[in-house]
Amino acid sequence: MSNGKSILVDTSRCTACRGCQVACKQWNGLPGTKTTQRGTHQNPEDLSFETYKVVRFEDGRLENGKPYWYFFSDQCRHCIEPPCLDAIASHLEGGGVRDEATGAVLYLPPSSKAPFEDVRSSCPYDIPRQNPKTMGLAKCTLCFDRISNDKPPACVLSCPTGSMVFGDREDILALAAKRVEELKQTYPKAMALNPDEVRVIYIVIDDPRKYHKHAAV
Ligand code: SF4
Ligand code: SF4
User: Fold this and answer.
1) Where are the domains of the chain?
2) CATH level 3 topology of 83-141
């Protein structure tokens, strides 16, 4: 297998416009989710079988008392060694695959027969969801139908700030390392999250737990 593809998500450049969230729904033909006002700009509340990508909003106070407001466009990381596929394979054959050329992690129809809670709890980032009617498992596909036709994922294409970049894994890893070094000049805690283990590599400027409890392992 080649080293495949990767996405860089530089959260320091994200303005929380949610273009990526909407583009994901549009490309995958997913409906909007009915929600209620919960006192936050994050909407919907979480990932679901019809929301593969959600921009999380987290706010609070830094150690020096200044406020922070962080944005984190959460989605499947397309792990290099995906534990969710191991969980599915422990129950049945043919429930999922990691594409040889791109590294995309994909669920196939038989996965609906795998015990959902086993699959969800196997994921360090709490990503898999289940359609309660069809029992099908659902998550981001890395826009496999697009990237296997030399087009970038819909979310990346939609991003107006350059927060998201798609490319060959070696190039994305090099870009991530360069950007972290730049950010460290201003934000000493800047880091890439688990870059050796995932294809969707986030950069943060602070403790990842301030962004989302499952941001990093
Ligand atoms: S992030 Fe979770 S759902 Fe995505 S490939 Fe990794 S283990 Fe599977
Ligand atoms: S499209 Fe880009 S800037 Fe807008 S929410 Fe998504 S990652 Fe952030």
Assistant:
1) 83-141
2) Alpha-Beta Plaits (3.30.70)
